[in-house]
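Running co-folding for zinc ion.
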Amino acid sequence: MVDFFSHALWAYALFHARPDALAYAACSLLPDLAWGIPAILLFFASGRKLSEMRRWRHLPHEEMSKNLRKQPYFENVRVAYHASHSWLIAAFASLVVWAFAPKIALAFFSGVFLHLAMDVFVHKDSVNGQEPFYPLSHWRAPSFVHWSNKKFIAANYALLAIVYALILLGRV
Ligand SMILES: [Zn+2]
């Protein structure tokens, strides 16, 4: 995941000219909601407290990864993560949405695949990494940086600020 807000902000920026741009932004959050909500529920179901989760967020990346691997529910979350970030499963889910809710199919497809494309190269040394062909293959996409890298976050938000300024000025 690139940070949660960036996914929605980029999706909205890219599709802002469409009347249903908010649907694109909402759909761009689905891959992280699909594994993040079960992960949070399992965290609390295992008797953990909110304060512990807050503390984790401030740990160095390596230490947080170590903590995650030790959790009894780690394997379930790993499966949910790879399933929600699989390009194959996203393609299949897009077909299902197209069959049953064609009006939102384009927003679903575009939002979800924009999310996956943004994630694919920015999970260096991540606990799970990106496996676009899961479950058929466990091949991991090469990564060049982790999205939580401070310089990467600064560059990302600087770029977002420029893009939104151009949108507000009516230049794009
Ligand atoms: Zn993600």
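Result summary
Residues 1, 31-32, 85, 115, 119 surround zinc ion (CB under 6 Å).
The chain has a mean pLDDT of 92.
Job closed.
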